[in-house]
Specification:
The complex is a heterodimer of chains A (315) and B (665). With 315 residues, chain A is mainly alpha-helical. Chain A has one domain. Helix content of chain A is 71%, strand content 1%. Chain A has 12 helices and 1 strand. Chain A has helices spanning 2-31, 41-51, 62-81, 97-116, 121-152, 157-166, 169-172, 177-190, 209-212, 218-243, 255-282, 291-314; one strand spanning 55-57. Chain A starts with a helix and ends with a helix. Chain B is mainly alpha-helical and 665 residues long. In chain B, the strands form 3 sheets. In chain B, strands 1-2 form a two-stranded antiparallel ribbon. The N and C termini of chain B lie far apart (66 Å). Classes of the chains: A mainly alpha (315), B mainly alpha (665). At the A-B interface, strand 1, helix 3, helix 4, helix 5 and helix 10 of A face helix 16, helix 17, helix 18, strand 4 and helix 21 of B. Strand 1 (55-57) of chain A pairs parallel with strand 5 of chain B, so a sheet runs across the interface.
Chain lengths: 315, 665
């Protein structure tokens, strides 16, 4: 039964991932007074990519072909352990916070290798930038995760979310608000969103993620785009699950509870997508060589969150 | 499986390298000389590993029981499990690097004098073993000196100017370290040079607190300089890469661990550790970790990247040792409960660093011997020539970057998790552990950067030189030892991690496959992680097979905007790390300058432009240079006394006599 629930939960995240990307794109278009595409467009484009022929550069090695599998695999892992509908079902050794962080890093590393294995400056540039960002965002990421764990006394993602569902909102959530802001900074950087990266263009010299995957096509491109959609959804699910823990429950699960959880989950994703679209519409992209300011800010906010939590804990 | 067998095997392991010395010199005219000597080293390492395994099988792992090694009645050494643990690292290193040296050294027979190099290696191996086995202060110092001096001959093996300079720097630094160690130990022993460890510990009981503090600082400086801790690390990035690759692997993978052993053994002699000591060790450890990782991320010499990464990893281990000193034996049971988990990290990371660093040094050495360069900017595209070797190198890099499913990840997980759990102890611990955790995360990120950069610069993209384009196949003995390191690294996570976490629990029904729990109830399971990696991999393969277009991919050119691209257009390793150099500009003291030289007097537009960039050593500039300036200033001042007038010299002699009489009377 537990395995069934884990599979179901992972499937929900996997199936809703392109929807989140679609929602963000459409909402952004509306902010810009455009009609925007259908929110289901990413499904169509990924499925059509799957049927297209692949071209692979002759200057690449086997590493280039392994990259999509590892990146998508690490995204699958995130989908598997994030408590989006239920908590307390994933073994505590698999949803550990530091394993979560390491798997995110593993995905980034292979994406970087893919960009380096093309012999083109474009992919190399994206890789260099992505690796720098991944290295520098690590302190803020780990400190926020550790703060969440400290606040809840649990070391797994499930336990953390479980804590917030069991307490009244006003008791549990306010102490971690600062940490959540720090986590949002990490989320934007990890998912190549504004102000770190511009996910909409292919040809600007300012971008990171799209430059790395430039040489990929067909099935592999679909896998990489799907992976980035899943990563966004998973991190958003963590963020929203803490902010609005409503609907997430522990087994045993009733049909009514399941329905509530599903509706709540999609509601939260819509809200998260709106937030991202809003942020991307009101701020500008930062110059890459000012990224250390962003990272320092993220780190200090995460540290401030930890300080708040320590004060709450010991006073 | 008697104790006599263990005794014999340890004796064999100890003596065989010396046999190797004799044979190496006797057979130096024959072509099979090197193979013979390396085989003897391999036998020595093998015997030692079996002896160590027997030891642990006989006495158990968590026990403090000791075993009396008599070496056929010649001596009587009470071996404890810590000594055997470090000895096994030595034997493991000797086994792997000697296997590697069979094929890696002969191509260099014009560069190195192989028989003498092997003599130096043998003394080095014996010196390391003797350092660990030493039962008394005097033998320890002797063995330490044998190890240090033979390491000097390994560093200068190719007799190039660069090596001689590096060797000289090493020689001076190691003897400053030796002086500190000797002084510190003698302070503890009350001046008795021939005291056994037991006597040293006894006489340390009556030492004054000031003497204890001074002795601690001296020992930390001495062993720290050998372990490459900042700011006494200056020699390491120069010296380690200059040795032949197999010896570099021993220097970085094993000798640094012997320094760690010396420090731990030294600290165990103290009746109490001074209150500042833990903070000193933590601070220096973290500083080394950060600085090592940062320099590894911007270094261009492949072997020097590894040397800087050794500084980083030793820094991590020492910071954990500092935390252990802080929490160990605390009256508060919540605080002292942190100690076992920290100790678990120290042991795991010692093993893991040994495994991946030995493997990486051998792998980089193999690349350098085939492409004739260690400069990352000149390499590239090797993954197309050596697919399997690239896989081995990638696995070692991921292990070094502490990513799952390799053993290093589980070690570092233990550290992170212990720090995070330790935050719940008190507000003070919470705050300081939070800062350490943040710094460790940054160090981890930079190490990730350094290894990804090194791997992609060597193996990915297109070859930049004809050497790199037309490399010959890799001989088996050059890739087999690194491959063993990969397998060992995975094994360390799957077996060593659960076994060491609860050494005595296996009799109580715990299995290898159970969760490993550390402080605070957090748990991790290497088997689950590996299983999920494998199952997700299989799942994706199945999806790929059934859901996507199955036509073979079309092989094309890289997208080039309609204009052919050349290998020179790729990012170099230097370009790759440009953001890091920029973001950490003030710490790296990096400078970039565009030099414009006019060519034609009449036309100002015809100029030659050159870009130069440099990284200066922070410590050389702010610490070593002022000391050097001060020394010169003092010697200039003293020079005034030597004006060549004999009367002044006579006056000085009389003054000295009067002063001596005055002080003695």
């Amino acid at each position: 039964m537990t395995y069934l629930l884990i599979t179901f939960q992972a499937l929900v995240v996997l199936l809703s991932a392109p929807l989140v990307v679609g929602m963000v794109r459409t909402l952004k278009a509306r902010f810009q007074n455009r009609q925007g595409p259908s929110i289901f467009l990413p499904y169509v484009s990924m499925l059509s990519l799957l049927r297209k022929e692949m071209t692979i550069t002759k200057h690449s090695s086997w590493v280039f072909r392994v990259v999509p599998f590892v990146v998508l695999g690490s995204a699958f892992f995130l989908a598997l352990v994030v408590p989006s509908l239920f908590f307390g079902i994933v073994p505590s050794s698999l949803d550990n916070i530091f394993l979560f962080g390491a798997v995110v890093a593993l995905g980034s590393v292979f994406l970087v290798l893919g960009g380096m294995d093309t012999g083109s400056t474009f992919g190399n540039m994206g890789s260099s930038r992505e690796m720098t960002l991944a290295a520098l965002v690590e302190p803020a990421f780990y400190v926020s995760l550790a703060t969440l764990a400290l606040a809840t006394g649990a070391w797994g993602m499930g336990g953390i979310i479980g804590h917030f569902t069991s307490l009244p909102w006003l008791v549990a959530v306010p102490p971690v608000i600062v940490t959540l802001i720090g986590f949002l900074f990490v989320l934007l950087a990890e998912n190549a969103r504004y102000p770190v990266d511009n996910p909409a263009t292919h040809l600007e010299l300012t971008m990171v993620h799209e430059a790395m995957i430039l040489e990929y096509s067909g099935t592999y491109l679909a896998m990489l785009e799907y992976a980035s959609a899943i990563k966004l959804t998973a991190l958003l699910a963590v963020c929203m699950g803490i902010l609005i823990p409503f609907g997430i429950s522990a087994p045993p699960v009733t049909f009514f509870g399941l329905g509530v959880a599903l509706i709540a989950f999609f509601g939260k994703l819509a809200l998260g997508a709106f937030a991202i679209a809003f942020i991307e519409s009101v701020i500008v992209k930062m110059r890459f060589y000012r990224m250390q300011e962003y990272m320092m800010l993220a780190f200090f906010i995460a540290l401030l969150g930890l300080a708040v939590e320590l004060i709450v804990l010991y006073h | 499986m008697s104790s006599f067998t263990i005794d014999c095997l340890f004796a064999v392991a100890f003596v065989l390298p010396l046999v190797g010395v004799v044979l190496s010199l006797l057979t130096r005219r024959f072509s099979w000389n090197n193979t013979l000597v390396q085989s003897i080293f391999i036998l020595s390492g093998f015997a030692g590993l079996i002896a160590g395994s027997y030891f642990f099988a006989l006495l158990g792992i968590g026990n403090s029981a000791s075993f009396n090694a008599t070496f056929f009645g010649l001596v009587n050494i009470a071996l404890n499990s810590m000594q055997v643990f470090f000895l096994m690292l030595v034997y493991g290193g000797v086994l792997l690097t000697s296997l590697y040296a069979i094929q890696s050294l002969p191509p260099y027979k014009d560069v190195y004098v192989l028989p003498t190099l092997n003599v130096a290696s043998a003394f080095f191996i014996v010196g390391m073993q003797a350092t660990i086995l030493s039962p008394s202060l005097f033998t320890f110092l002797m063995a330490w000196e044998i190890m240090s001096v033979s390491a000097y001959f390994l560093v200068i093996a190719d007799r190039s100017d660069e090596s001689l300079r590096a060797g000289w720097l090493y020689f001076v630094m190691t003897h400053i370290g030796f002086a500190c160690i000797a002084a510190g130990l003698l302070l503890l022993a009350g001046g008795n040079l021939f005291a056994s460890w037991h006597d040293v510990a006894l006489s340390a009981l009556s030492a004054t607190p000031l003497a204890i503090s001074v002795a601690f600082v001296l020992l930390f400086a001495g062993f720290g300089s050998k372990a490459g801790l900042v700011p006494l690390h200056q020699w390491l990035p120069y010296a380690h890469p200059q040795a032949p690759s197999g010896s570099s692997a021993l220097l970085s993978g094993v000798m640094l661990k012997v320094a760690l052993f010396g420090f731990i053994q030294g600290v165990a002699l103290f009746p109490f550790v001074p209150s500042f000591s833990a903070f000193l060790v933590i601070g220096i450890g973290l500083l080394s970790a950060f600085f090592g990782a940062l320099r590894a991320a911007v270094e261009n010499d492949a072997k020097r990247v590894l040397a800087w990464s050794s500084i980083e990893n030793m820094g991590l281990i020492f910071s954990a040792v500092g935390i252990y000193l802080l929490v160990h034996g605390s009256p508060d049971s919540a605080v002292s409960a942190i100690a076992p988990s920290i100790a678990l990290f120290i042991i795991l990371h010692t093993v893991n660093h040994f495994i991946f660093k030995t493997g990486l040094f051998m792998a980089v050495g193999a690349v350098a011997s085939k492409t004739h360069t260690r400069n990352l900017d000149e390499l590239g595209g090797l993954a197309q020539r050596w697919p399997i070797f690239a896989g081995i190198f990638l696995a070692l890099s991921l292990a070094a970057a502490a990513l799952p499913p390799f053993g290093t990840f589980f070690g570092e997980w233990t550290y992170f998790q212990t720090l995070a759990s330790g935050m719940t102890v008190s507000a003070l611990f919470g705050g300081s552990f939070a800062l350490i955790l943040a710094l460790l995360a940054l160090v981890g990120g930079l190490a990730l950067f350094a290894y990804v950069r090194m791997f992609s610069a060597i193996f990915l993209g297109r070859a930049r030189t004809t050497h790199a384009e037309q490399v010959s196949p890799m001989p088996i003995l050059l890739w087999l030892p690194p491959l063993s390191s990969v397998l060992l690294s995975i094994t360390a996570g799957l077996f060593l991690f659960p076994i060491l976490s609860a050494p005595n629990a296996f009799t109580e029904g715990m299995t290898l496959f159970g969760d490993v729990a550390v402080l605070g109830g957090a748990s991790m399971n290497a088997w689950w992680v590996l299983l999920s990696v494998l199952s997700i991999g299989v799942l994706l393969m199945v999806f790929r097979r059934f859901l996507s277009n199955r036509n073979p991919a079309r092989i094309t050119d890289t997208w080039d905007c309609g204009q052919p691209i050349t290998p020179r257009m790729q990012y170099t390793a230097t370009g790759f790390s440009a953001p890091i150099r920029f973001f950490f500009k003030s710490i790296l003291m990096s400078e970039k300058e565009l030099i414009i030289e006019p060519i034609s007097m009449s036309n100002p537009w015809i100029v030659r432009r050159r870009l130069v960039w440099s990284i200066q050593s922070f410590f050389e500039y702010w610490l070593y240079r002022p000391i050097g300036i001060a020394v010169f200033a003092v010697s200039h001042a003293v020079k005034k006394l030597q004006n060549g007038v004999i009367q002044l010299y006579l006056l000085l002699v009389i003054c000295a006599l009067v002063l001596t009489l005055a002080t003695t009377l």
